[in-house]
Amino acid sequence: MTIAPNMDSPRTATANPPTHPVPPNLGQANVVRSSAGGPVAENPQPLTEVAKLIDVSKCIGCKACQSACIEWNDTQPEVGVNVGVYENPHDLTPEMYTLMRFTEFDNPDTGDFEWLIRKDGCMHCAEPGCLKACPAPGAIVQYSNGIVDFISENCIGCGYCVSGCPFDIPRISPVTHVAKKCTLCSDRVAVGQGPACAKACPTHAITFGTKDDMKALAAERIEDLKSRGYENAGLYDPAGVGGTHVMYVLHHNDKPQVYDGLPEDPKISDVVQNWKGPAKPVGIAAVGLAAIGAAAMALFHRGNSVSQEDEAEARELVQEELRGAPVERPHDKGNA
Amino acid sequence: MVERKFSEPTDEIVQLEPVEVRRYIAFTRWNHWFTAICFIVLMLSGFAFFHPSLYGLTALFGGGQMTRWLHPFVGIALTVSFLGMFFQLVHLNIIRREDLVWTRNIKDVITGHEERLPELGKYNFGQKTVFWGMFWLILALLITGVMMWYQYFPHLVSIETRRIAILVHAVSAVLIVLVFILHIFAALWTRGTLRAMTRGTVTGGWSWRHHRKWLRELARRQRTKPAE
Ligand code: HEM
Ligand code: SF4
Ligand code: SF4
Ligand code: SF4
C-alpha cells in the first residue's frame, strides 16, 4: 500500500514506500506547539494523530529495530563493552535513539521467571515536558499528528529538556552540543513511510498507524493476552502526559515499573511546572517593579545629600581628634 | 596605637582642607568593577534563558549556543572575584547592635534625620544587607549552577535534583537582581557615594554624616601615628 492521496499519514509501516515522489507534509505548516514561544502555524493543517504501538509480549529482543534506527538516522554509536548484560549500548546516547531494555522478573504471583524486554525511546507525549522546559524558541516542536521533534539548528545544548522529560529520554551530544532523541521517523512519516524500527521488526511487535487504529489493535492484543492468563494486560498510554504517541502493550500493566523502571504515573514534575509557570511572571514582575520603583524614587526624591554644615562638622571632628583640640587655621596635611 | 575596630588599615584621611578620606584602594576598586562586569554579563546572559521574551539578549553574546557556553564560565569568574572582595570586606560587615537600632529607625534615614540615629562604622545595615545578600545568593547560584552545567557535569546530580537546582537558580537569580537594584539605588540616592568606587575617596562631610565612627577612628589613628 502506498500513501493514498486522501490520506495524510501512512497507516502502516510494513507496506512498501510510495514509488512516486511525495512532497513532505510535516513542516512549519503543521506545528501546533513550539518551545519558548517559537513560531506555530496560524491555522495548522490538521493531520490524523499517529502512534507507534510496541507490543512487549511479542518482542524477542533481536534489536533489528535498533539497527534500523541507526541505519536510517545515520548515527554512529560507539562499539561497546560487554559487561554481561544484553543492553547494548548500556543506555540511550546521542547516537542511539532507541534501546532494548532487558529485565529478569521473578513474578511473585505466579512464581514464574519472566524475561521482559522493553523498547525504550521517546514516547512522543501529547504534553511534552521537554518542550515545556526548553528555553530556545523553536528548538522543540510538536506537529498536529502528535510527533514531537527536536530542531537542532535552534537548539543551544543547555540540557533543560533532560530535566523536563518524565522518561529520561533526551541526550546531549558532546560533539555537536545539541539534544537528540527518537524523531518517530518524522522524515519518513512526512513522505508516507512508517518508522524504520517498525518496518524492521520481524515479529510485528512494533506497529504503526493512526492512534485510533493502534488502540484498536492493542485492544485485540490485550484480549488475547487476558485469555492466556495475563489478567493485568493493558495499554500504556499514560494520561498524566495527555497520552503518548508511542504506546506499549504490557502483560503487567498494573506494574509498569517492572519493565526496567517504566514510570507508573508519568507527568511533568511539579518542580518544572512551578519553574516554568508562576516563577517566570512573578520574577519578571518583581524585578520590573523594583526597577521602576527605584527609578521613580531616584527621579522624584531629593536624595540624601551632604551639606556644607556636614563638611564643617567633619573638619571640626577631625581637627579635634587629630590634634586633641581645635586649631584656628588647619592647613592641608596631604599625607598626615 | 589606637585600636582599629571600624576601619581598614588602608583607610586614611588624605586631606584636611576640606577633609577627604580614602575609602577604597585601587585594588579593591578594580576588584569591584570586575565583579560588576561579570554580574552584568551573567544577568543579561542568564535572563536570556529565563523567559522567551528575553531570549533576544543571546544576540549580545553571539547566539544561543555561545551564551549557554559563556554564562557558567563567567559565573566562576564572578565567584572568584567576589571572594576577593569578600575577604577584604567581611570583618567590617559583621552585623552589630547599632545596626538593629538603625534598621528600626529606617524612616529617619529616608527622611534625612540621621542625627537621630546611632553613629556607624564603615558600613550601615543596608550596605551589610547587600554584602550578605550577594554572598549567600552567589553561593546558591554557584552550587545550583554547577549542578545545571550540563556540558561538563552531566551526571553530577540526578534528574530530580537538577530540576530543583534549576528552580533554585532561577529564584536566586531574581533575588540577586533585586539586591543589585537596591545596591545601585542606594549608591546613587546617597549622594557622594559613587566616588568611593571611582576615585576611591569620599568627602569628610559624607563620612561625618553616614559613617561617623569610621571617620572618628581614622582621625584618632592618625593622631597617634609617629610624625613623618
Ligand atoms: C555563580 C556561578 C553561576 C553558575 C556556575 C551559573 C550557571 C548556570 C547554568 C549552567 C545555567 C544553565 C544555562 C547554561 O548552561 O548556560 C544557568 C542559567 C541561569 N543563570 Fe546562572 N550561573 C551562575 C550565576 C548566575 C548569576 C549571578 C545570575 C544572575 C544575575 C544567573 C542567572 C541565571 C539565570 C536567570 C538562568 C536561567 C534560569 C532559567 O532558565 O530559569 N546565574 N546558570
Ligand atoms: S538542549 Fe534541549 S532544552 Fe536546551 S535548547 Fe536544546 S532541545 Fe531545548
Ligand atoms: S518522552 Fe520525553 S523527550 Fe519524548 S516527548 Fe515526552 S517529554 Fe519529550
Ligand atoms: S525489532 Fe521487534 S522483536 Fe526485534 S528487538 Fe525490536 S521490537 Fe523486539
From TrEMBL, chain A:
<feature type="binding site">
    <location>
        <position position="59"/>
    </location>
    <ligand>
        <name>[4Fe-4S] cluster 1</name>
    </ligand>
</feature>
<feature type="binding site">
    <location>
        <position position="134"/>
    </location>
    <ligand>
        <name>[4Fe-4S] cluster 4</name>
    </ligand>
</feature>
<keyword id="KW-1003">Cell membrane</keyword>
<feature type="binding site">
    <location>
        <position position="62"/>
    </location>
    <ligand>
        <name>[4Fe-4S] cluster 1</name>
    </ligand>
</feature>
<feature type="binding site">
    <location>
        <position position="197"/>
    </location>
    <ligand>
        <name>[4Fe-4S] cluster 2</name>
    </ligand>
</feature>
<feature type="region of interest" description="Disordered">
    <location>
        <begin position="1"/>
        <end position="44"/>
    </location>
</feature>
<feature type="binding site">
    <location>
        <position position="182"/>
    </location>
    <ligand>
        <name>[4Fe-4S] cluster 2</name>
    </ligand>
</feature>
<dbReference type="InterPro" id="IPR006470">
    <property type="entry name" value="Formate_DH_bsu_Proteobacteria"/>
</dbReference>
<feature type="binding site">
    <location>
        <position position="130"/>
    </location>
    <ligand>
        <name>[4Fe-4S] cluster 3</name>
    </ligand>
</feature>
<feature type="binding site">
    <location>
        <position position="185"/>
    </location>
    <ligand>
        <name>[4Fe-4S] cluster 2</name>
    </ligand>
</feature>
<keyword id="KW-0411">Iron-sulfur</keyword>
<feature type="binding site">
    <location>
        <position position="122"/>
    </location>
    <ligand>
        <name>[4Fe-4S] cluster 3</name>
    </ligand>
</feature>
<keyword id="KW-0677">Repeat</keyword>
<dbReference type="Pfam" id="PF09163">
    <property type="entry name" value="Form-deh_trans"/>
</dbReference>
<feature type="binding site">
    <location>
        <position position="69"/>
    </location>
    <ligand>
        <name>[4Fe-4S] cluster 2</name>
    </ligand>
</feature>
<dbReference type="GO" id="GO:0005886">
    <property type="term" value="C:plasma membrane"/>
</dbReference>
<dbReference type="InterPro" id="IPR017900">
    <property type="entry name" value="4Fe4S_Fe_S_CS"/>
</dbReference>
<dbReference type="InterPro" id="IPR015246">
    <property type="entry name" value="Formate_DH_TM"/>
</dbReference>
<keyword id="KW-0479">Metal-binding</keyword>
<dbReference type="GO" id="GO:0051539">
    <property type="term" value="F:4 iron, 4 sulfur cluster binding"/>
</dbReference>
<feature type="domain" description="4Fe-4S ferredoxin-type">
    <location>
        <begin position="146"/>
        <end position="175"/>
    </location>
</feature>
<dbReference type="InterPro" id="IPR051555">
    <property type="entry name" value="FDH_Electron_Transfer_Unit"/>
</dbReference>
From TrEMBL, chain B:
<keyword id="KW-0479">Metal-binding</keyword>
<dbReference type="InterPro" id="IPR011577">
    <property type="entry name" value="Cyt_b561_bac/Ni-Hgenase"/>
</dbReference>
<protein>
    <submittedName>
        <fullName>Formate dehydrogenase subunit gamma</fullName>
    </submittedName>
</protein>
<comment type="similarity">
    <text>Belongs to the formate dehydrogenase gamma subunit family.</text>
</comment>
<dbReference type="GO" id="GO:0046872">
    <property type="term" value="F:metal ion binding"/>
</dbReference>
<dbReference type="GO" id="GO:0009326">
    <property type="term" value="C:formate dehydrogenase complex"/>
</dbReference>
<dbReference type="GO" id="GO:0036397">
    <property type="term" value="F:formate dehydrogenase (quinone) activity"/>
</dbReference>
<keyword id="KW-0249">Electron transport</keyword>
<feature type="transmembrane region" description="Helical">
    <location>
        <begin position="164"/>
        <end position="189"/>
    </location>
</feature>
<dbReference type="GO" id="GO:0008863">
    <property type="term" value="F:formate dehydrogenase (NAD+) activity"/>
</dbReference>
<dbReference type="GO" id="GO:0009055">
    <property type="term" value="F:electron transfer activity"/>
</dbReference>
<dbReference type="GO" id="GO:0005886">
    <property type="term" value="C:plasma membrane"/>
</dbReference>
<keyword id="KW-0812">Transmembrane</keyword>
<dbReference type="GO" id="GO:0022904">
    <property type="term" value="P:respiratory electron transport chain"/>
</dbReference>
<keyword id="KW-0408">Iron</keyword>
<dbReference type="Pfam" id="PF01292">
    <property type="entry name" value="Ni_hydr_CYTB"/>
</dbReference>
<feature type="transmembrane region" description="Helical">
    <location>
        <begin position="70"/>
        <end position="90"/>
    </location>
</feature>
<keyword id="KW-0472">Membrane</keyword>
<dbReference type="GO" id="GO:0009061">
    <property type="term" value="P:anaerobic respiration"/>
</dbReference>
<dbReference type="InterPro" id="IPR006471">
    <property type="entry name" value="Formate_DH_gsu"/>
</dbReference>
<feature type="domain" description="Cytochrome b561 bacterial/Ni-hydrogenase">
    <location>
        <begin position="23"/>
        <end position="200"/>
    </location>
</feature>
<feature type="transmembrane region" description="Helical">
    <location>
        <begin position="30"/>
        <end position="50"/>
    </location>
</feature>
